[in-house]
Amino acid sequence: MRKKIVAANWKMNLTLSEGSFLVNEILAAAPAVTASRQVVIATPFVHLTQTAAQLEGIGHIHVGAQNCSSEKAGAYTGEVSAAMLNDAGVQYVIIGHSERRGYFNEDSAMLAKKANQGLENGLQVIFCCGEPLEIRDAGTQNDYVGQQIKEGIFHLTAEQLKNVVIAYEPIWAIGTGRTATSAQAQEIHAYIRNVIAAQYGNDAAAGISILYGGSCNPTNAAELFACPDVDGGLIGGASLKADQFLAIISAMINS
Ligand code: PGA
């Protein structure tokens, strides 16, 4: 049975004290989660040790990073390695967010190396994919996203794939308030699962969690998470407010 996951992506928001306050608010009210229902809080790098300390011993709420280096170690000024993340108590790392691809020119070859680094250092990789508006308007989103997945993770073994979560995030829905409809999400999530099945077989496809991201909020989360191939969400803006994030966690738990 694949996991359902809600992951907060704080992006470049919150000071240390604001982050600590938000995590405490979440911890004070978070509903009980089970092994098959997980919560991840992906913070900026400087928050990680603080957040890991706050979440220590809390069963299924995990700390995540939003990026890692494609390199193992060495003279890469400003970079943070996956080994450092693991050592800091991090369990998940987001790879290939559209903001990393777009603003920081991260291409598939680099993302494949980042995925390797994450997995070799014991992290669960949340691999992001998703099309820009012009691709959606042209109706070629399936090919576009399928290609991102092939280039980013198809070099992995089936064993490694067990530690990968896919996050489908249409770029036109990120931070825009324009969410994909549940029908649009279900259609492309099912397609992504078929892409995985064709490469790794039906069991691997049935086991991989595929999250939806892009203006997911307390109002639309339940409907999105009710789709058979939507296994939770990657949440940006709504993860910065405890009440909204908690409502989305509840929607995931009840889905
Ligand atoms: P959003 O961001 O929820 O603010 O649209 C989602 C994401 O980029 O992960």
Structural features, described:
The protein has helices spanning 16-29, 48-55, 82-87, 98-103, 108-120, 133-138, 141-153, 158-161, 182-200, 202-207, 221-225, 242-253; strands at residues 4-9, 37-43, 61-65, 92-95, 124-129, 164-168, 210-213, 232-235. With 255 residues, the chain is α/β, with parallel strands linked by helices. The protein has a single domain (4-253), classed as Aldolase class I (TIM Barrel). Strands 1-2-3-4-5-6-7-8 form an eight-stranded parallel barrel, surrounded by five helices. Helix 1 (16-29) links the parallel strand 1 and strand 2 (37-43). It is globular, with a radius of gyration of 17 Å. It binds 2-phosphoglycolic acid. 2-phosphoglycolic acid binds at residues 9, 169, 174-175, 213-216, 234-238. 2-phosphoglycolic acid binds next to strand 8.
